[in-house]
Design goal:
four-stranded parallel beta sheet, Glutathione S-transferase Yfyf (Class Pi), Chain A, domain 2, Rossmann fold, about 45% helix, 2 domains, about 300 residues, 8 strands
Length: about 300
Amino acid sequence: MFALKVAVFWGCITQTSQYACELSVRRIMKELNVELVDLEGTSCCGTPIKSVSAYASIYLAARNLAIAEATGLTDLLTVCNGCHLSFTEAMRFLKADEALRARVSSLMSEEGLTYEGSVNVWHVMDFLHDVIKKEAITKAVKRSLKGLRLAVHYGCHIIRPSPLGRPDDPEEPRKLDDLVEWIGAVSVNYSEKLDCCGAMLMLSRPDGALTMAGSKLKALRECDVDGLVVICPSCHRMFDERQRSAGAAVGVDVRVPTLYYAQLLGISMGIDEEELGLHLNRSPVDELLSKVKDALSP
């Protein structure tokens, strides 16, 4: 019997390329006694078409929220910063605009769906920090990560735009830092901490996008960190999958192990590397794993 039961929305990128995100989140939640309920019939969250049609974006988000509400569960977990923002924006707009809500409700009724605005939307980051909390996480740790110097990357959409009320402080976020430190590692502060990964520019200005990612990776190399911890599939794709291209864009051969926080937590829990999808990472995560194993050696 699980202690908690929550609906989960995986989003597009996780289920089409960032499989390690899903693997690691499913595995650590099982270890933390959280049952994830998959939703049927969901679609894109709406983020990619926001600049083309704000209404279509809101409708897609509301439809997914309605599907989550239909489960009878009160909490919805997201793994992507963009999905979390889409849902948060849609909830705010629908609450403030009765005409918009009526229009959306009318269209959803064709599928037998209704939107009430009753579900709580969480990102993996604040769910772990604010719901699971420190005591349960530290209790689950079997491998100390003491000695590791890690940098964290929050990503834009998890802290901005601030008027919406994001999961953490837009100027001085701390929750991901806390999560890293709760499992024994040091979260290294650096000037570029809140800089964008560049993912949203990949379709229109890939050169600019890769330069942004490369500049951040270059700064991290100079900070002498053991790895970079991210919480968003789009950010992970830029820093992990596209790391070599990002480094080339700024003329530097960067080697920064990049992994999801769920993977890092899973390592500290003693979970098998393949179960966490670490074999799917493209950055040199083996270097970080070697340091963890060395720290465990007698």
